[in-house]
């Protein structure tokens, strides 16, 4: 049974080194657990979709909730899926510095990443559009 979970959180340490540490750990752990996904980070906010087996995704989300590098962790969407949308990435990263801010304005009141201010459905649509139009880093 495949599921997709979408959550938002705030970085406790927004330094580039701390964010890179989270990505590195994800890319090491996720392949052995059958987890794929995509991470969007901007303005101290994470928006992440993770996909995989129900038990593995639930276990990973539980770990994220307890991770001291994240705060204000909020579940935005959880659904059973028939196929992965982000299957090409152990943990791809949307490069927000290369996107057109009009994309962010399409989905929110301001041209900034704020998944706390919109629905989970809107956040997923934004993430899919960002994935389709922005540079994706870390395809491995």
Automatic annotation (TrEMBL):
Gene3D superfamilies, alphabetized: 3.30.70.100
InterPro entries in the cross-refs: Acylphosphatase-like_dom_sf, BLUF_domain
Residue intervals of the BLUF domain: 2-92
One MF term in the entry's GO annotations: blue light photoreceptor activity
Protein name per Swiss-Prot or TrEMBL: BLUF domain-containing protein
Species this chain originates from: Rhodoferax sediminis
